[in-house]
Design brief:
By secondary structure, this protein is of the alpha+beta class. It folds into 2 domains: 23-101, no CATH class; 105-140. The protein has helices at residues 2-19, 92-97, 104-116, 121-140; strands spanning 24-32, 35-39, 42-45, 51-53, 57-60, 65-70, 75-78, 82-85, 100-101. The model is unreliable at 106-122 and 140-147 (pLDDT under 50). It is 39% helix and 28% strand.
């Protein structure tokens, strides 16, 4: 009876580890400049050949670009200041539509405001918020053409 209990615990541990194994759905075929892979609360610099793991976010900086080659045959090219969350089972059109711009300018304004003094942070946040609303309004009104 004791042996059966040990066997069940071991089998449960193996199944748990197997269920949590990361699912790879492709790889990065080209990385230029600074590109980051965000996996939960961990960050890593992306390199050519790195696996595309479901749930990870690929983020390019203003100097970065990356090409993601999915096992399905879909190829997604990220330009500077773009990101995408790696998913599985999506068709190519959905993967391309999942590419989102990264708000690099907003981060720079807030970071610069902190260096100037604590009293300038709130006005900087208000200005950044207004800029985001203006951009969102332009995007929703169709004034920005798709890539």
């Amino acid at each position: 009876m004791k042996n059966i209990a040990v066997l069940l615990v071991a089998a449960s541990a193996v199944m748990s580890a197997w269920a949590q194994a990361p699912q790879t759905v492709g790889k990065l075929t080209a990385v230029q400049g600074l590109v980051t892979i965000v996996a939960g609360d961990k960050l890593a610099n992306a390199v050519t050949g790195a696996p595309l793991v479901v749930g990870n976010r690929i983020v390019t900086t203003s100097s970065g670009a990356a090409t993601l080659a999915f096992d399905s045959g879909c190829v997604v090219a990220l330009k500077a200041n773009e990101s995408v969350v790696v998913t599985s089972g999506a068709d190519c059109k959905a993967l391309l539509a999942a590419v989102k711009p990264v708000g690099g300018a907003a981060v720079a304004v807030v970071a610069g405001a902190g260096a100037a003094g604590a009293g300038t942070v709130l006005p900087a946040i208000i200005i950044v918020g207004a800029a985001i609303l203006i951009v969102a309004d332009a995007n929703s009104s169709g004034n920005v053409s798709p890539n």
